[in-house]
Amino acid sequence: MNHRPCPSASVSWLLLALCVTPAWAGSSEAAFERAEALLPAAASRLARNEAPRVHWSRDDSSLWYRRETEAGDEYVRISLPEGAREPLFDHARLAAALA
Q1: What is the pLDDT of residues 39-62, one digit of tens each?
Q2: Global confidence as pTM
Q3: Range of the domain at 63
Q4: C-alpha angle 62/66/68, rounded to 5°?
């Protein structure tokens, strides 16, 4: 038995491939954009306080750090012997002194 490819079948496959390729290109572009949103540079815009920078007092009895909130930055002091957490300074008093 002799099998020869049918020219019309080859043309049909070619047309199908030409129609499907643009659809794949659009979906891969969307997938690329979704993947790009997960890169560390993009993720760092979404995450807060992932690696706070801690500052120690001279006698090592307390530390302070800056914490990002939706309202702005907050500075926190922790007294190590007690483990008490409090604002580093009085925001209202500081604002009044600067005004």
Answers
A1: 776 666 667 777 889 999 999 999
A2: 0.51
A3: 48-98
A4: 145
